[in-house]
């Protein structure tokens, strides 16, 4: 289930509303196409995983302005010369255009449209801020999470990543969205209960140091935990001394599902702890490692044959710490006027974009992704699978959204088709994305004429 | 006004609820103190600005579990051996303890308590996730914003910073919270309309490239904007060619409030644009610069005497890009049992903390902050101003929250008392924070006994 948040329609940059008022004033509201894409991949990403599309589409479909919201907008000083009919327009706003986009979980590269909004100029303009923030954040987290998951399985073993980042996410709601993005990218679950409730994501948890500190001794704390959770107890064993903690874990008399180590030298601790557990017949007790982990630290632990079954990853996942934002933009690419298609592009230095509503063809050879070709929508003759599908037609959703597990499965299948060099954590590899001659001609026409 | 979000009580890490269930099972619910603090300052921060405290306190005060929320928690597999009375407890949850904390806008350094929750163990444990994410994010953004504001005024001129980051914030709600944090740290306003509505923050906006691209020519687009917003028009002049854009801005026949440049070499463009504007008698027209700016780029522009009146800063502000999270933690420091105070501290390597409920004294000499002394609460003889004040007593708010403008003013006053070396953008300076002998003794007692 999705939630509509209080006053969500106001969660927009002011200029979307002033531009909308301006278009309205001039009675200028042609059908246009906006495209949302990432300008450039971060240095530490060879691919992105498109995420947040369901939230984006449902936002567009549910967007309405209440009287209270409209009255607030009307009260702003900047709106004082705006025709009153504009506020009636807002009051009656309901998206009636078309939405195209990538499937959620599609691998995506720089300059490839993730969403396309084809609608009247005013309807489409107003959506910009919300669409950018939604796609930006979930795509950033899913892409980071994918790297972390790859690292945990870099020796071919099926270790799990548990997303524990809510406490360091950018506010309470960001944690829930991060959990969703991390899950579709391959994490096994999350600590965030609301993400479990809202999206059905599996929930995981252990115990905090406060549990141990609340009781009179570590052994007492462990026993008391197992009394309540006899089948699922995971002890946090590093409150005082990790190896002593492991020995105490062996003395509780309970079956111990797992132990978690959250500090110190994780490789050495884990190796010693494994010995202690095994020598006490606790071969089934799993080891979970956590503590400011990222894909590099995890790969290093795996390389050193650290005995570990699962990683708890928080901060670096939920904030995509090394690339906390993507250069997502929402650009007007086409205007339909007097039955003519006018192609639009900004050509300011360093930010060149291609005009026109596009389609992406992904070429696959021997079950491997080879390259993408971006063409003007409707161009014939391209090879490969069309990636942009229609979500909404004349304001009605015509797409049946997949479950998160289906998206997760789709991500896994996509990654299997991505050549290995793109999965490297530290070597940059640029996936080949080409633009059709037609698009190049349209761009050079604009460069010539301005 | 604050909002309660749908199912907010579920926005919590699972382990808070399992630990709560465990304490409840053992009928173990002593009065305890948790402290929330930042473990270590990021490399690029010499000080932090405490922010998000009003949201944190109001969350605690309003937290309730609905039947639907309780039923969901009860349905989780991990809860199957938990006594049914625990779910009744949740259903009746209402915080009844005490809350202490820094004033919002206080300068804060590593290991200094920002919030203290003194309450029954279960009541206090459940709050952890929400408090961490709330204080973490707003404090991170306020601290980043303060640097950006300092940079813009580094030659003593009163230039404004406009916060434009919603589109790259971590989801729609993060943008609103970022706007709040940025404003108290000294930004002049935000583009986020909901932040204006909810918090009364001044709203700013210009126009996007899409405005220019929607019309048949740049000049036409400028004129059409001024027709609707004759007194407040800010033209974005870099869609095709910045200098041509400036010349066209001079040809509209309207008074132009400002021009914005969003790409290219901002220093050179701005100098040329200023000349074009002045030679057309537009000396009052302001120049706003934007485009992936941060404090370093801004300081550099000022150093080069770039003519600029205002900066629009987005991504790097709203994500605190170089330090997107703080190492905030929420630690049990004291347990009251049988009328005795038991002091608690985790002593695992690299994460040592001091036990006991604390007070901070900030020493001021000749209107300059000199050092902080952290003592056990109630210790006598310390010099300076006590920083931790009481917000909530027995579950009732006893504090009158300041307005955002009052907090903003308080931040400015605090920064005037901070010696200049801490305001450097690139030189690390460690503010002196000392712990009392009493606290050191309590810590070494714990180290000896575990």
Explain the overall architecture:
Two copies of one chain form a homodimer. Chain A has 450 residues and is an alpha/beta fold. Chain A folds into two domains: 8-126 and 326-449, nicotinate phosphoribosyltransferase (Alpha-Beta Barrel), CATH 3.20.140.10; 147-318, TIM Barrel, CATH 3.20.20.70. Helix content of chain A is 37%, strand content 20%. The first copy, chain A, has 16 helices and 19 strands. The first copy, chain A, has helices at 14-25, 53-62, 67-75, 84-91, 121-125, 128-152, 172-184, 193-199, 209-214, 218-228, 242-249, 266-279, 295-303, 315-318, 404-417, 437-449, and strands spanning 31-38, 48-49, 98-102, 107-108, 115-120, 160-163, 189-190, 234-236, 258-261, 286-290, 310-313, 328-337, 340-343, 358-365, 368-376, 385-386, 388-393, 396-397, 433-435. In chain A, the strands form four sheets. Chain A has a seven-stranded antiparallel β-sheet. A six-stranded parallel β-sheet of chain A has the order 7-6-11-10-9-8. A four-stranded mixed β-sheet of chain A has the order 16-14-15-19. In chain A, helix 6 (128-152) packs across helix 7 (172-184). The first copy, chain A, is globular and about 80 Å long. The two termini of chain A are 48 Å apart. The model of chain A has no long low-confidence stretch (mean pLDDT 95).
CATH topology of the largest domain in chain A: nicotinate phosphoribosyltransferase
Beta-strand percent range of chain A: 15-25%
- Helix-and-strand structural type of chain A: alpha/beta
| Lateral strand order in the biggest sheet of chain A | 13-12-1-5-3-17-18
The CATH H-level homologous superfamily of the largest domain in chain A: nicotinate phosphoribosyltransferase
Which regions of chain A are unreliable across 5 or more consecutive residues at pLDDT < 50? none
The first-level CATH class of the largest domain in chain A is given as Alpha Beta
Percentage of residues assigned to helices of chain A: 25-40%
In total, the number of strands of chain A is: 19
Q: Which two protein chains have the largest interface (Cβ within 8 Å of the partner's Cβ), and how many residues from each?
A: A-B, 113 and 113 residues
Q: Rg of chain A to the nearest angstrom?
A: 25 Å
Task: Give me the CATH architecture of the largest domain in chain A, please.
Answer: Alpha-Beta Barrel
